[in-house]
Design the sequence.
């Protein structure tokens, strides 16, 4: 039996146009290699990261670097994987569906039931067919876990759960991730997840670590909005 790929498909770096993050994409790729990851996606807010040097470095390290973006649609976040650069310009869920029909893109519902205005919440029911997978996020402890509702929804709708870190701090990497039964390659990873050949790997975050990660995110703050464009809410 072929080895399952260790995968994290929701990662942010200093190249993000909205969040201030201390590590850059090169540092993240190196850290992912150290932790044995086989495939990752850097999902900047509303922009796909295109860097041939980074792609080459990932290949040298044996890491599949999937195209990714965390797109803000009417204030809510959707993770789009293996989509073309046109994903930066989609303005609503119908446009995502139309673009998805033309490519092998994977639509993931990130942290869908967390208590924040950027989370999908009711859109999960009204647009259930659009989502290929539901995220189990790093951000949970033994006492507080907003992922449980996402897991129930995924079970009720026959959708796979994938573990992602929604990484803003390198300490997050490796606590919540996925094992995907696929050959190494962006299309193969997406096909396998869509088919349910994915296993969630996760452990609760110690409260002290979570507080450090969240405090760092708040302390670093957000970047100024580009002219004519409002920032997303998280």
Sequence:
């Amino acid at each position: 039996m072929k080895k399952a790929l260790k995968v994290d498909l929701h990662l942010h770096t200093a190249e993000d146009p909205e969040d201030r993050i201390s590590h850059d994409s090169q540092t993240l790729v190196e850290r992912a290699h150290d932790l044995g990851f086989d495939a990752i996606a850097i999902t900047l807010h509303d922009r796909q990261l295109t860097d041939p040097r980074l792609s080459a470095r990932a290949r040298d390290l044996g890491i599949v670097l999937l195209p990714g973006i965390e797109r803000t649609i009417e204030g809510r976040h959707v993770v789009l994987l293996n989509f073309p650069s046109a994903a930066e310009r989609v303005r609503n869920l119908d446009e995502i569906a139309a673009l998805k029909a033309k490519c092998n893109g994977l639509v993931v519902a990130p942290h869908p039931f967390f208590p924040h205005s950027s989370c999908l919440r009711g859109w999960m029911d009204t647009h259930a067919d659009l989502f290929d997978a539901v995220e189990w996020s790093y951000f949970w402890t033994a006492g507080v876990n907003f992922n449980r509702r996402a897991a129930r929804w995924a079970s009720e709708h026959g959708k796979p759960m994938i573990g992602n870190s929604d990484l803003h701090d390198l300490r997050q990497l490796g606590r919540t991730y996925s094992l995907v039964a696929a050959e190494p390659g962006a299309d193969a990873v997406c096909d396998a997840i869509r088919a349910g050949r994915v296993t969630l790997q996760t452990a609760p975050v110690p409260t002290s670590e979570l507080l450090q990660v969240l405090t760092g995110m708040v302390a670093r703050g957000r970047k100024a909005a580009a002219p004519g464009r409002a920032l997303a809410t998280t």
Summary: The first strand starts at residue 5 and ends at 11. Helices lie at 25-34, 52-60, 93-100, 123-126, 147-157, 186-194, 207-220.
